[in-house]
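Try this one yourself first.
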């Protein structure tokens, strides 16, 4: 028999196929099953108008069988088959897709489900097989053919006595090596796993004879004698795929449990999701999606290992397990899948040819997630707060990143702990503001308990104004990005002008500051680099001192920025505020002529302020000595 050569360019392509187009060898099974499904689709399509086909929809199936002794894996379909010419054209030239031709010739449009269109999938078989045999009989043909190939060397075509229409593909697997155990593909359990993973939603049943074992019936005598039964093998035909994907079923058919059960099974999460959404989009590109908001962050969510993304299917066939482009970072907690018929896939079906369709889908998914979250916030506050506890920080990062480009989309999804001991939205905060309140006040610290005690909050609280407590590292950065909400500016309670100081008192304070200008500057001098100035405080009520900052970088931002890796340290311009109403002020003025004493007092007060702020004491030994001296 004449050995035919693959076309020249095909040879190179085949080599490339085997070695580099696909990242996982296991996908060969997906490719062969997709081809079988396409072939069945073609014959099924014919059967709709041609009685001679003689098969009803339920008769169509794909069969898998594995034989460990001969190391062969067989994939059989009763689809349209191939003529000798088609065999030659389709399998003799790589990158020649019969499916694409069929599609064009028959002017098939969206409704048509044919998957293949590149003409390379078949050759992925050579990633795991040393020899591939294709026995096929085309519909309407009297003769069957056998195509055999051991890879790049070429192939032979001969006649065969196959009686039924359809195709049988036989893979003789490569020998196992140290790194690759090809024999795993003969394992029933592994085959089942691959089909569930990649081909679960192929529309025709994928069947396999599976051997089970059962105890044999014991005779009465043996029973009495207490004998244990022997086991016998029996064969059962199993359908390995579920065929109709949940997301393609009509919503009215499905119950809440179906969606939840699907989630826990599919995404290996034993917690039920907080929310789900079933999207059926008939626009262009058309797609179906199932989106879930988990109730708990996965264990690796805050680690580098975490990969965001949705599963991407093309016509029920899994293309990508985590398609990151479908989700913006701030919605990275969403799990689920998207299935579209309108994707143009690249050669290996592992990437998309154009990401234009994908971008449109991603935009539309983002809108869905955002509106689902808004709905939850409005109608199901309890669950929203649960969601917030798990994933809220992600939305705050979203506000901050990209120079605030997404802040308008996200600001109404934010929650903050307030001084009134509850979570509030910015809208709720602003709505509850009394007429005379000009700003949205916030205070920062590592915990709400700690912020509660901050002396800086005294004046604002005294006025009865609510304060937002910011405890996450990202909070203040996000607030800085927002700048204002509904025309109300954000104001740190530690900032210079709080907009609530009464003018008479201001004047008084100013006079007092001028009177004590020498003392205050002497104190600042004695503290050197630590502070930029020492002032009389207008916000302190009962506490003697506090620290505030001038300029863009606040004390909290200094802490956050300096805790990040990197050598560049920033420093806020610190201001030491002294309460002029506090006893301590009298002590200071009394000591103002003794510069040595004043310097010591300044150090003590500054260190106290650091402690209240939760910042490290710069010189603990000196501080301790000063206290002892004082006592
Ligand atoms: P693709 O599926 O991307 O078109 P393949 O290399 O997988 O490319 O297959 C090439 C062509 O061979 C297919 O388009 C189809 O016409 C034909 N073919 C492959 N497998 C079968 C099969 N099981 N039955 C009938 N035709 C097949």
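Now uncover the answer:
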């Amino acid at each position: 028999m004449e050995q035919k050569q693959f076309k020249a360019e095909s040879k190179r392509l085949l080599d490339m196929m085997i070695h580099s187009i696909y990242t996982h060898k296991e996908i060969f099974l997906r490719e062969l099953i997709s081809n079988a499904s396409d072939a069945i689709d073609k014959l099924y399509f014919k059967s709709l108008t041609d009685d001679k086909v003689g098969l009803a929809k339920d008769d169509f199936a794909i069969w898998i069988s594995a034989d460990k002794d001969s190391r062969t894996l067989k994939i059989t379909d009763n689809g349209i088959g191939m003529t000798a010419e088609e065999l030659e054209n389709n399998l003799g030239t790589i990158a020649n897709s019969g499916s694409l031709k069929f599609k064009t010739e028959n002017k098939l449009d969206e409704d048509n489900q044919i998957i293949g269109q590149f003409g390379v999938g078949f050759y992925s078989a050579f990633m795991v097989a040393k020899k591939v045999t294709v026995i096929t009989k085309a519909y309407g043909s009297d003769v069957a053919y056998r195509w055999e190939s051991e890879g790049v060397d070429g192939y032979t075509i001969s006649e065969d006595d196959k009686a039924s229409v359809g195709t049988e593909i036989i893979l003789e697997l490569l020998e196992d090596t140290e790194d690759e155990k090809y024999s795993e593909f003969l394992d029933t359990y592994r085959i089942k796993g691959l089909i569930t993973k990649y081909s679960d939603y192929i529309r025709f049943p994928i069947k396999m004879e599976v051997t089970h074992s059962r105890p044999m019936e014991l005779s009465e005598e043996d029973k009495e004698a207490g004998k244990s039964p022997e086991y016998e093998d029996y064969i059962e035909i199993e359908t390995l795929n579920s065929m109709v994907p949940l997301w393609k079923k009509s919503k009215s058919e499905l119950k809440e449990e179906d969606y939840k059960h699907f989630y826990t099974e599919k995404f290996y999460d034993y917690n039920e999701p907080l929310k789900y959404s079933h999207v059926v989009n008939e626009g262009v590109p058309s797609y179906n999606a199932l989106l879930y908001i988990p109730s708990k962050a996965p264990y690796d969510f805050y680690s580098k290992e975490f990969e965001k993304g949705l599963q991407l299917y093309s016509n029920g066939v899994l293309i990508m397990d985590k398609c990151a482009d479908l989700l913006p970072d701030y919605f990275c907690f969403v799990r689920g899948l998207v299935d579209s018929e309108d994707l143009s896939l690249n050669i290996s079906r592992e990437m998309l040819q154009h990401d234009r369709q994908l971008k449109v889908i991603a935009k539309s998914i983002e809108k869905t997630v955002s509106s689902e979250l808004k709905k939850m916030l409005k109608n199901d506050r309890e669950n929203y707060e649960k969601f917030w506890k798990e994933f809220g920080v992600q939305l705050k990062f979203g506000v901050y990143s990209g120079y605030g480009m997404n802040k308008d989309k996200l600001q109404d999804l934010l929650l903050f702990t307030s001084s009134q001991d509850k979570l509030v939205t910015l809208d709720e905060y602003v709505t509850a503001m009394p007429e005379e309140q000009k700003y949205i006040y916030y205070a920062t610290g590592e915990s709400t308990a700690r912020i509660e005690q901050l002396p800086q909050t005294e004046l604002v609280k005294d006025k009865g104004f609510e304060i937002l407590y910011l405890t996450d590292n990202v909070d203040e950065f996000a607030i800085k990005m927002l700048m204002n909400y509904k025309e109300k500016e954000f104001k740190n309670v530690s900032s210079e002008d709080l907009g609530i100081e009464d003018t008479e008192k201001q004047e008084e304070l100013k006079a007092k500051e001028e009177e004590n200008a020498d003392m205050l500057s002497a104190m600042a001098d004695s503290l050197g680099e630590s502070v930029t100035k020492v002032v009389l405080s207008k916000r302190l009520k009962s506490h003697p001192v506090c620290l505030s900052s001038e300029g863009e970088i606040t004390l909290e931002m200094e802490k956050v920025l300096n805790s990040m890796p990197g050598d560049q340290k920033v420093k806020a311009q610190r201001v030491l505020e002294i309460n002029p109403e506090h006893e301590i002020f009298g002590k200071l003025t009394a000591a103002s002529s003794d510069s040595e004493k004043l310097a010591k007092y300044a150090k003590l007060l500054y260190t106290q302020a650091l402690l209240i702020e939760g910042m490290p004491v710069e010189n603990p030994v000196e501080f301790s000595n000063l206290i002892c001296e004082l006592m």
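Discussion: The chain has four domains: 11-213, 246-380, 415-492, 503-630. Residues 108-118 have pLDDT under 50 and may be disordered.
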